[in-house]
Amino acid sequence: MAEETTNTQAPAAQATAPAAAPAARGERPVRPFMGKRRFESRRKVCKLCAEKMDNIDYKNFQFVKSFTMESGKILSRRITGTCAKHQRQITKAIKRDRNLAILPYSLPKK
Ligand SMILES: [Zn+2]
Questions:
Q1: How far is the CA of 14 from the centre of ligand 1 (A)?
Q2: What is the DSSP-derived secondary structure letter of residue 28?
Q3: pLDDT one-digit tens code per residue, 21-56
Q4: Which of 46, 64, 107, 108 could anchor a disulfide with 83, C-beta 3.0 to 4.6 Å?
């Protein structure tokens, strides 16, 4: 019984003499895919899509401000998770607010 279980690997080991070269090629260690991933990605959801906000009002500057960094820079889509359509609207609103001096273009580092 024990021999039968190991039978799958036995012929390859025994047939070293005649077919040495092809066997060596075939026996190259193939790394199996380990099921675990290093980190799990969490799905980012667009805030504005979730709340079904169609157009962003530049006058709602407190909301618009939440998409900027402390220094005044616009946060990227990669960070906030907004969709392309809403990111375009946010940038427009931020730039409008900057022009109206509601939001700063930049703030000095402390
Ligand atoms: Zn969206």
A1: 63
A2: S
A3: 555 555 666 666 666 667 776 777 898 999 988 889
A4: 46
The tokens for 38 are: 């290093």
What is the Å distance from ligand 1's center to 39 Cα?
25
Q: How many CB atoms lie within 10 A of CB 73?
A: 13
Q: What is the CATH number of the domain that holds 86?
A: 4.10.640.10
Is 13 a member of any domain? no
User: Number of folded domains in the chain?
Assistant: 1
Cα-to-centroid distance, 19 and ligand 1 (Å): 61
Range of the domain at 87: 51-99
Question: Which amino acid would we find at residue 89?
Answer: Q
Is 93 buried (19+), middle (13-18) or exposed (0-12) by CB count in 10 A? buried
Domain membership of residue 78 (yes or no) is yes
Q: If you measure from the C-alpha of residue 82 to the centroid of ligand 1, how many angstroms do you get, rounded to a whole number?
A: 5
